[in-house]
Design brief:
The protein is α+β, with helices and mostly antiparallel strands and about 200 residues long. About 35% of the residues lie in helices and about 35% in strands. The protein is built from six helices and ten strands; from the N terminus they run ββαβααααββαβββββ.
Length: about 200
C-alpha cells in the first residue's frame, strides 16, 4: 500500500508498526519480552512453550537477565525498511524471530544470551572523577554529530585538558572551550589529580 500517512511516515511503515516491527531505537526490554510472548502465544511460531516448557522458561529467564544492548544485538533482525519523515528518510525496521524458531535455535540463542550477559558484567567500568572543585588532568573523548545532506555523521574526537567540577576544559575541543562530563556523548578515558 503505497502513499504517505500524513507527513510522518509511509503507509507501509504504519503497517509495519501495526505488525509489531519497530526501528532499532524504539525497542525496549519490555517490548522485546512482550513481542516474544505474543509470537509464541498466538501460534505464530512453533509450539515450544507447550512441548518443551523448560527450554522456553530458560530462554525467557536469560532474556530478562540480559542487558538491553546485548538483547538488541542478538535478538533483533532487520526485516524491512520504510520511508519516514517528510524528507523520505529510509528507516530499517526490526523484529524478533521473523523467520521462525525451533528448539535447537532457541537453545543456541539462550546460550548466546547467557554468555553475552557474563561478558557484559566483566567489562571494566571507567570511573569519573568525584565532583568537587579539585582540578584533574584528564584525557577524554567525545562525539560530535554533523549533518551531511540528509545523513547524520558521528565523529569521535580525543582531547587532553582539565576537569573541574562537572566541566572538562581544553583548547582542543571543537567549537567550544568546555564540555559537560555528564553528557551521553562524552567519555573520560583517564584522569589524575593535577599538581
Amino acid at each position: 500500500m503505497s502513499g504517505y500517512y500524513g507527513i510522518s511516515m509511509s503507509n507501509n511503515a504504519v503497517k509495519a508498526y501495526e505488525e509489531g516491527k519497530k526501528p532499532y531505537s524504539k525497542w525496549t526490554k519490555k517490548g522485546i519480552v512482550d513481542r516474544i510472548n505474543e509470537k509464541f502465544s498466538n501460534g505464530k511460531l512453533t509450539n515450544i512453550p507447550n512441548k518443551r516448557p523448560e527450554i522456553f522458561s530458560n530462554f525467557i529467564e536469560a532474556v530478562k537477565k540480559t542487558p538491553l544492548v546485548e538483547l538488541k544485538r542478538i535478538l533483533l533482525i532487520d526485516t524491512e525498511y520504510h520511508h519516514t519523515s517528510i524528507y523520505y528518510n529510509s528507516t530499517i525496521f526490526y523484529d524478533v524471530f521473523p523467520y521462525g524458531c525451533n528448539v535447537q535455535y532457541m537453545k543456541q540463542i539462550t546460550s548466546k544470551l547467557k554468555k553475552a550477559t557474563e561478558d557484559y558484567k566483566q567489562r571494566p567500568k571507567v570511573e569519573k572523577p568525584p565532583i568537587d572543585e579539585t582540578k584533574y588532568h584528564a584525557f577524554c573523548e567525545y562525539d560530535l554529530v554533523f549533518k551531511d545532506g540528509r545523513k547524520r555523521i558521528t565523529r569521535t574526537y580525543k582531547a587532553e585538558g582539565y576537569i573541574i567540577g562537572n566541566w572538562f576544559y581544553s583548547d582542543q575541543i571543537h567549537g567550544a572551550k568546555r564540555k559537560n562530563i555528564n553528557g551521553k556523548r562524552f567519555r573520560v578515558i583517564n584522569f589524575e589529580k593535577a599538581e
